[in-house]
Amino acid sequence: MLLNNPSTPNLKIEDCLENESTLVKEARRIMEVCNACRYCGGFCAVFPAMEMRRSFSRGDLEYLANLCHNCTGCFHACQYAPPQEFDINNPKIMAELRAETYQKYAWPAPLAKMYQKNGRAVSYISTFSVMIVLLFALITQGNAALFTAYSGSGSFYQVIPYGVMLGVPIVIAICSIVALLAGVFRFSKGTGWDMRQLAQPQNVLRAVWDVMALRYLGGSGDGCNYEDDTFNHKRRWFHQAIFYGFLLCLVSTSVALVYDHFLHLPAPYSLASIPVITGTLGGLALLIGTSGMLWLKMKRDKRPQAEGLLGMDTAFTGLLFLTSLSGLLLLLLRGTTAMGVLLVIHLGFVSGFFITLPYSKFVHAVYRFAALVRFAEEKRRNPDGDGII
Amino acid sequence: MKDITQPYDVLVIGGGNAALCSAITAREAGARVLLLEHASKPFRGGNSRHTRNLRCAHDGPTSFLKGAYPKETYLKELLKVTDGQTDEKLARIMIDESVDAPQWMYKRGVRFQHIQGTLGLAHSNPFFLGGGRALVNAFFNTAEALGVDVVYDSEVLEMDIRDGKFHSATVRSRAFTMEVKAKSVIVASGGFQADLAWLKEAWGEAADNFIIRGTPYNKGRLLKDLIEKGAKTIGDPQQCHAVAIDGRSPQFDAGIVTRLDCLSFGIVVNKNAERFYDEGEDFWPKRYAIWGRLVAGQPDQIAYSIIDSKSINLFMPSLFRPVQADSIRDLAQQLRLDPEKLDQTVTNFNQAVQVGTFDKDKLDDCFTTGLTPAKTHWARRIDSPPYYAYPLRPGITFTYLAVKIDEKARVIMQDDKPAENIYATGEVMAGNILGKGYMAGTGMTIGTVFGRIAGQEAAAYVA
């Protein structure tokens, strides 16, 4: 019997031999089977991107993994899915490889270790954040400050002083955004493409549109598989609730910052104000989206899933849930004696969320966006889709 | 769990496209339907698991197809590939009914996509989104939602047929043998290609070197049962849909990924390092279905497609990487061919090549002169290392020996009368239309059209 020749045509040796993980090798095996089949072309962007290639470097595979939205359509449609002997489980391997890229490209490197037990890391940091805010409030403001019913503007600053309320989040946000950008820059460089070439308006716009509509969880119009081989839009809608809820909360916080710092209108604001309306809508959307996502995760078909990553997913989703829940409760009870404690808890969760931002599931948003920008560029260069990049 | 010992109106045997189309149709017509699938759930769907499109006539652009594919063209092409070995009345029914097939499938959950594939079938063959397994999933979901009883791991061992009438079936369901009663039966259990002993009866020793591209469950048990119980047959047990596939393929169930579309870009030699047929006779999609038989006719049923680096990116990638070498002699060593002879064959070929303008998308003017057999198109010198080779074996998709049916999909018995309540659809009767040769997507069209007819007729019979 003839053995397979271990050299792929067109693959540069230096692309495939340097420090490759088992996951990269398995992803390559899968992509080579998929590329010989091509039945899944209409599900998402991964397959059209795959079809532009005859061989798969490590960088190609890391890019494809981050293009994958885990809709699992290809798994349920696959004639080679386990228990068939070819054992093709694309979504699972793509998810594991994605997580590997999060760790590999995270910056600074020592903090990337957080991805090894990510559920635990994110939970601990969030818990510590709440404790630290609480201790800080107790030590600086005293007992009474936490359990008094305040009214009128500036009452939040009775619990946490204005300078701290403004300064600490800004420092955390800047650090996190720098780390995130460093990560995505390392990712793009490490997978072999040039940011400057890609960041053209039409590519970015197309990627923004892909994200806004969550095109690749839409399948061919029927939504995606998740619980079984039937199609629906549940996951898409829940994800959109999280995405737009998060954006609304960002709007709320930014407007509040402008009101407070530049217009000298200190919080809390009236129920009809922009920060409260956007924050409330955003918080409710986040509650619905995160609980829906967690509910779907419990019901999902486990076969095409990387169950080892459940910790990372649930810690992040759970933290978002707790952040919005505490925020909404704070709004509801801000005139009562519970305000102080709720404010502390809410600010604790918010800090935890932003501290872990570059080292949590959140990065999927940034890496996937980058991958979608790259796909837009490849599609532009290769509109027929069957050429070779 | 379902109690399958209660009597049903319609028993459908099989779980592929043909079976599902008939089960859904019979159920929609109000019949109580039981579908028995021999395979376990992950392997359900027979050969349909590995399919990707069906061939449909249409007069103008539709939501599924570009351009037009007139019925006359369809029939003309069918008559050509089968050499006229087709039941024209049934063929016309298939072609007429194919027009509505995609819409019917779509309404029952099947989704299509437009592929820019290498086959150039956009005007005649809508492709299933996700391929055949996605179609099978959609149909099973639809069937069960309609109330069809579906049981897996259930093999029908034999049928009680007396005087052209079906009474009951003996079934081994999840290891227990039982009797299933139904007022009518639709046999949609496929051909016999997975029964290697039966293949050997037809082909002799050569069958030892055949690879079965699809499901290992199609052993033709009910085809044999029907023949033994007086069904009339049509077709030759040697005839089948056979293509040349990668010889390193697993024995069963490797599906589409081991097909090779490179044969027309190089030369094909047998184990004696000799060419044996015009590799450039016509476009690959029009010729791919003859190469299985060609390779089966060579010593040890093996051949090798040899190309050079000019052609390596001209065709769809396939499952196994090619054998690669920097010289023809080294390539021969790796293939265990006589290096001297292969070198001579390539040299002779190269000397016979007339320089023309190579164009893979048309019947170009690159041909050989003074060479037997000639290569009539796409002939380019094999002179740019690295050289690549793929071993080839006959890959059997499905067999054509069939039970004869009438236009109501009823099985015809030895007295030339149709059986009262026995219907057949899919690969168990495809030989009525496919006497030999093949056109992409025809198998699925046959199963869909006659599945719907069988379902309708069986439901009408019991009503």
Which class best fits the helix and strand makeup of chain B? alpha/beta
What is the terminal-to-terminal distance of chain A? 34 Å
What is the helix fraction of residues of chain B, given as a range? 25-40%
How would you sum up the major sheet of chain A? none
Content of β-strand of chain A:
under 5%
Task: Name the chain pair whose interface involves the most residues.
Answer: A-B, 42 and 47 residues
Query: Rg of chain A to the nearest angstrom?
Result: 23 Å
Reading the helices and strands of chain B in chain order gives EHEHHHEEHEEEEHEHEEEHHEEHHEEEEH
Helix content of chain A: 55-70%
| Percentage of residues in DSSP E strands of chain B | 15-25%
So what's the oligomer here? heterodimer
- Report the radius of gyration of chain B as a whole number of Å: 23 Å
Structural class of chain A: mainly alpha
- Name the shape of chain B in a single word: elongated
Total beta strand runs of chain B:
18
| Mean of all residue-level pLDDT scores of chain A | 91
The coarse overall form of chain A would be elongated
Low-confidence stretches of chain B: none
Unreliable segments of chain A (pLDDT under 50, ≥5 consecutive)?
1-16
Distance between the termini of chain B: 27 Å
Question: Can you give a write-up of this model?
Answer:
The complex is a heterodimer of chains A (389) and B (463). Chain A has 389 residues and is an all-alpha fold. Chain A has 16 helices and no strands. Chain B is of the alpha/beta class. In chain B, α1 runs parallel beside α12 and α10 packs across α11. Chain B is elongated and about 70 Å long. In chain B, strands 1, 2, 5, 6, 7, 8, 17 and 18 form an eight-stranded mixed sheet that branches. In chain B, strands 9, 11, 12, 13, 14 and 15 form a six-stranded mixed sheet that branches. A two-stranded antiparallel ribbon of chain B has the order 3-4. Chain B starts with 7 loop residues before the first strand and ends with a helix. The interface between A and B is large, with 42 and 47 residues.
